[in-house]
Design brief:
about 575 residues, ten-stranded antiparallel sheet, about 10% helix, four-stranded antiparallel sheet
């Protein structure tokens, strides 16, 4: 099944009149205390109610907005305040406008959380509708911010596959980019199209494209026209917040739509998150939480922006052909039959986050680091130089001299962390350790990881080979003239050595080695291990293939436990011995 993802990073600017227009300047203040109101959207509106220009106030509450000839009113909106409208007169110097806005009571005092649902056409304009107006004001501020006050930002985007059940990341692609990118994603379909046909496009070949609602979709009147609203009490993840829940109207119960909650700060008027899930999808996809999350952040200068977002789409396998979407002529709407035989084969997640941002007025913001830090050891000593990585991803680093490592700006989730010592990878199997780890948002996860001792690797390598005390190991690899491992060569070794130079060892008897010889087998990488050789004694090696052979001699330095040899014997059939 092919899955579509929410769009790419983009920046959008509102087109304004090309005519040289009159300009309105001024300041927006709190009517009670006279303090500046940052983040207030100021719009030039014509007599028909259409917006002709708009901007947003900064930290000082000041604004400047062009006034096209058709502009009749200045409309000022800010989440947490009652809207204001100021009539305009053209051809008259407006001077410095001072627009006072009345702060509304804190949201928890203004509304009573109730399960009653208010739908389009309801004669009651209750608390849910009042809260929806506040949510719309917050969404509008986020849209105008990206138009009027874009930031220079560093952003991270990702696409990954996680396992159903344990949710461990299997594969992930991460990209970072810099620039004036103020719109994290854009819905590929218009709000009206989504209201009429839902949030899933299905092709004849069975492929699917899920669409996520962006701020523009939520703000459009068509969204409210097909959704019902009710107030949602806070749960453990949204303490101090109040939620406005939304769900499709009954006429949308058979098409893929979205239901969710817009969470707002209950004390300080600001958007916090939008959590949504897809409706009318297969039970397997529903149980896997197909949907998304969008997080908003408001800065002291009034800037409101999306600082992180994610979309979760289960990939389904069908045990029998899936029913097609059909038209229900009785209700003039699309009816989609649910396939109960579908199962989740994988979960695809896409999303991103702003790492840091700077605005023109000097205000800057940096995301808290989500990271995995730790220390890597082997036999109680730092495993310096070992590679530490999150399996299936591009996150990797190298342990420093103290064995410390750090993986920063990690996308939250469950991973398999792998530590690998590749120092002698050309000659022996890698030393490797794995551990499950969870990267927790905005926090640093600390862990300790232990690599197998080198002695454990040696024990496996030398199994079946005699290895007296005080002897060493020769690690070799045979390559051809191009440096490519050559496993077709036969290697024989012999050496003369009295292991203890004639001095008996404390093993109940004297252990003396006068002469030793051994044939060694090569693995598919042309590698061999020769255990039990004496240090500081010549080791004669012969490589042969058919009638061709070559010789070399090597020594293991005194006080060393092993020696490595990468050897190209230049073998050719019929070549003389060297």
């Amino acid at each position: 099944m092919r899955l579509g993802t929410i769009g790419a990073l983009a920046a959008a600017l509102l087109a304004t009149s090309g005519l040289r227009a009159q300009q309105a300047r001024g300041v927006v203040v709190d009517s009670a205390v006279g303090a500046p109101v940052p983040g207030a959207v100021v719009m030039a509106v014509d007599s028909a109610g259409a917006t002709r220009a708009r901007t947003i106030t900064g930290a000082t509450g000041r604004f400047a907005i062009p006034l096209p000839p058709s502009a009749a009113t200045l409309s000022v909106i800010r989440i947490g305040y009652s809207p204001r409208r100021v009539p305009l007169r053209h051809g008259v110097d407006l001077g410095e406008l001072r627009i006072a806005m009345r702060r509304l009571p804190p949201m928890l005092e203004a509304v009573r959380v109730t399960g009653r649902e208010l739908c389009p056409g309801s004669p009651e304009r209750g608390a849910a509708f009042a809260l929806w107006d506040q949510a719309r004001a917050g969404l509008l501020a986020a849209i105008v911010t990206r138009e009027a006050k874009p930031a220079d930002a560093n952003m991270l985007s990702f696409e990954r596959t996680v396992s159903p059940g344990d949710e461990v990341v299997q594969r992930m692609r991460v990209e970072t980019r810099s620039g004036r990118t103020t719109r994290p994603f854009v819905s590929p379909l218009s709000p009206t199209t989504l209201a009429q046909h839902g949030y899933l496009q299905e092709a004849d070949d069975g492929s699917r494209v899920f669409v996520a609602p962006d701020a523009d979709v939520l703000l459009d009147e068509s969204f409210a026209s097909v959704h019902c609203f009710h107030l949602q009490s806070a749960d453990a993840e949204h303490r101090g917040e109040i939620g406005l829940a939304f769900a499709p109207i009954a006429a949308h119960d058979t098409m893929v739509d979205v239901a969710g909650v817009i969470w707002m700060d209950a004390a300080q008027p600001a958007l916090r998150t939008l959590d949504f899930r897809y409706t009318s999808i297969e039970p397997a996809a529903r149980d896997a939480n197909a949907g998304g999350d969008i997080h908003f952040r408001t800065m002291p200068n009034g800037v409101s922006f999306i600082d992180r977002w994610a979309l979760r789409l289960p990939a389904l396998s069908m045990d029998r052909p899936r029913d097609r979407t059909v038209r229900d002529p009785a209700h003039f709407r699309e009816r989609r039959a649910t396939n109960f035989a579908a199962r989740v084969s994988a979960i695809v997640e896409t999303g991103g986050q702003v790492l840091d941002a700077t605005w023109g007025d000097g205000i800057a913001w940096r995301a808290a680091n989500t990271a995995i830090h730790g220390r890597l050891t082997s036999a109680g000593r730092p495993a310096a130089g070992a590679v530490v990585a999150l399996e299936g991803t591009s996150y990797h680093t190298v342990a420093d001299a103290a064995g410390a490592f750090a993986l920063d700006h990690v996308v939250p989730g469950k991973y398999t962390l792998v530590a690998t010592d590749t120092t002698l990878l050309a000659y022996i199997e890698e030393r490797r350790a794995t551990q499950s780890v969870r990267a927790v948002r905005d926090s640093v996860t600390q862990l300790a990881l232990v690599l197998p001792r080198f002695a454990e690797i040696v024990e496996r390598l030398c199994r079946g080979q005699e290895q007296p005390r005080n002897t060493a190991i020769l690690l070799g690899q045979i390559v051809n003239e191009r440096g490519v491992p050559d496993p077709t060569v036969h290697v024989a070794a012999d050496w003369l050595a009295d292991v203890n130079r004639g001095v008996p060892v404390d093993a109940g008897r004297a252990l003396l080695v006068d002469k030793a010889s051994r044939d060694v087998d090569l693995d598919d990488q042309g590698r061999f291990t020769l255990c039990g050789v004496a240090p500081e004694r010549p080791i004669h090696l012969r490589a042969s293939r058919g009638r061709a052979s070559a010789d070399t001699t090597i020594k293991v330095p005194e006080d060393s436990t092993f020696k490595t040899l990468r050897w190209d014997p230049h073998l050719a059939d019929g070549a003389p011995h060297r």
